[in-house]
Design a protein that fits this description.
Order of helices and strands: HHHHHHEHEHHEHE
Radius of gyration: 18 Å
Strand content: 5-15%
Strand order of the largest sheet: 3-2-1-4
Shape: elongated
Number of helices: 10
Distance between the termini: 38 Å
Number of domains: 2
CATH class of the largest domain: Alpha Beta
Helix content: 40-55%
């Protein structure tokens, strides 16, 4: 028997947050967890996909991420934030730092959206050319993909 509640708790998510990530009503998730409503195999798979950490998604699609960044004019992709620290949860976003040449800036604009669609998580992409001294921590924390 599937214990969605235990899986959700291991992932460190509230019912409300998991329902939001899975795109289902919180009342439906509650009913699935309590057994008041049976969940189909497809629904269980959907809920489980929503419990995957961004670091796992990035690991599984790393080559595609690097190719997409390069195709859009970016180089030297690095990750920072919770994924770089190894503290990401399924509710975390993915923070990337890249080098973008001025002539590729307009091409690069859609990169965050495309990466979010590819990975199924919110992705923030920063250009290292726009960082100031106050952002030193981003540079110090960033690790290559």
């Amino acid at each position: 028997m599937v214990d969605l509640r235990a899986e959700r708790e291991r992932a460190g998510l509230t019912q409300a947050r998991l329902a939001e990530l899975a795109g289902i009503a919180p009342s439906n998730l509650s009913a699935y967890e309590s057994g008041r409503r049976p969940a189909s195999a497809a629904m269980i798979a959907r809920i489980r996909r929503a419990m995957v950490r961004p670091s796992e998604r990035l690991r599984d699609k790393r080559d595609e991420v690097v190719q997409l960044i390069a195709r859009n004019g970016g180089t030297n992709p690095r990750v920072f934030g919770s994924v770089a620290r190894g503290t990401d949860t399924p509710a975390s976003d993915l923070d990337l730092l890249v080098t973008v040449s001025p002539d590729a800036a307009w091409t690069f604009v859609s990169t965050a959206r495309e990466l979010s669609e590819l990975l199924g998580v919110h992705v923030d992409v920063l250009s290292d050319g726009g960082l100031r001294e106050k952002h030193r921590g981003v540079l110090d924390e960033a690790v290559p993909l």
